[in-house]
Design goal:
It is built from ten helices and 15 strands. The strands form four sheets. Strands 10-9-11-12-13-15 form a six-stranded mixed sheet, sandwiched between helices. It has a four-stranded parallel sheet with strand order 2-1-4-8, sandwiched between helices.
Length: about 350
């Protein structure tokens, strides 16, 4: 196991990347988007050439024709006309860029997240025909040790700088810059069974370096954990989860993932007395934005039903991240599909460094 971790760390170091690989996407119709983009560009030293200004509707929901016209087409132009198609690995959207593409639901859904759809832009720019309905295979899935390149993985890795407000996003960016490789990954099982999801959490505990994770295998829900650098659970799908907030002490650089169908559905702030189990934003489920508000530096989410098989796999995510791979590559190595419902919240360049 230690040899595996060492190999991951070496591969992550070989594949290390910086701001020259980022295209920052900002919406001129959103004041929040512009303020976040200016802050991130200054903190990460993103060159002006790599800031792509679009003019999209400010709302979170967008029809597919409007997505293609006001989001995908201008991002394509920024990449192609500025000679950035191959240079850019990471597309970074912001709060104020549309979140969810409207469409049909089900396993052949035409709906999807804007970010996951943008991941397919590289393939489309290279002339590949990519179907709209249903999830598309993520070529990076399970490739936790391979350096990222477009030849190996013909996609863009898309993450979103989003929280309940601009101040929350700025704080998240700052936490990423302060990340260090320390702390514990907390893995909270729902019932200790062998079903999918439960077994992935158990596998994560086995594959994470010794002493770096704790596994809860009863029906108890963990609250108030300290020195958290990672967290995975069933969120509001755990019937024993009664509290909205976990009360964790999150270390800078901490990331989280939950098996929740609609936790990335909105970044609108619920009322203070709202709790999972009460309808907000179209469903009653917990929200990834709450994890960011509590102090996490990155999190996954879903804008609509992804089905369990297409949620991030913690046994891939955390070993890669703790070995020094950056936030974007760690999440995308753990997500089975693109062109689907997934979002990744956070600065793609965040890294804990070598263990």
């Amino acid at each position: 196991m230690r040899l595996l971790v060492a190999g991951l760390a070496l591969a992550a170091a070989v594949g290390a990347t910086g701001p020259e690989r980022v295209l920052l996407v900002t919406n001129r119709n959103s004041t929040a988007s512009g303020e976040i983009a200016n802050y991130y560009a200054a903190r990460r030293k993103i060159p002006p050439k790599q800031v792509c200004v679009i003019a999209a509707p400010e709302g979170e929901q967008i029809a597919r024709p409007d997505y293609e016209r006001t989001v995908e087409a201008p991002v394509r132009d920024c990449l192609a006309k500025r000679g950035l198609t191959e240079q850019i690995f990471y597309l970074v959207t912001t709060l104020g860029v549309p979140l969810h593409i409207q469409g049909t639901t089900g396993r052949e859904a035409t709906a999807g997240s804007v970010d996951s759809e943008l991941a397919l832009l590289y393939a489309r720019m290279k002339g590949q025909t990519v179907a709209v309905p249903g999830p598309q295979r993520n070529p990076m899935f399970r490739q936790t040790g391979a350096p990222f390149s477009h030849r190996a993985f013909p996609i863009y890795l898309v993450t979103r700088l989003a929280a309940y407000d601009v101040a929350g996003v700025k704080a998240m960016i700052d936490r990423g810059l302060a990340a260090r490789n320390r702390g514990t990954v907390y893995l909270d099982m729902r019932e200790g069974s062998d079903q999918a999801g439960e077994s992935w959490l158990r596998d994560a505990h086995i594959l994470i370096p010794a002493g770096r994770s704790e596994l809860e295998q009863t029906t108890e829900v963990w609250y108030g954990r300290r020195n958290a650098i990672g967290y995975a659970s069933w969120g509001s799908n755990d019937k024993q989860r009664k509290q909205r907030r976990l009360g964790f002490q999150w270390l800078p650089g901490a990331i989280a993932t939950e098996f929740v169908s609609t936790n990335g559905r909105t970044f609108r702030r619920p009322p203070e007395d709202w709790r999972p189990g009460q309808e907000f934003g179209g469903t009653k489920q917990s929200l990834s934005a709450d994890l960011i508000a509590e102090g996490a530096t990155g999190a996954s989410g879903h804008t609509s039903e992804p089905y369990l098989a297409y949620t991030p796999r913690p046994e891939l995510l955390f070993p890669a991240y703790l070995a020094g791979r950056n936030l974007a590559e760690s999440f995308y190595a753990a997500i089975p599909a693109v062109g689907w419902m997934n979002i990744v919240v956070g600065d793609p360049l965040v890294t804990l460094g070598a263990p």
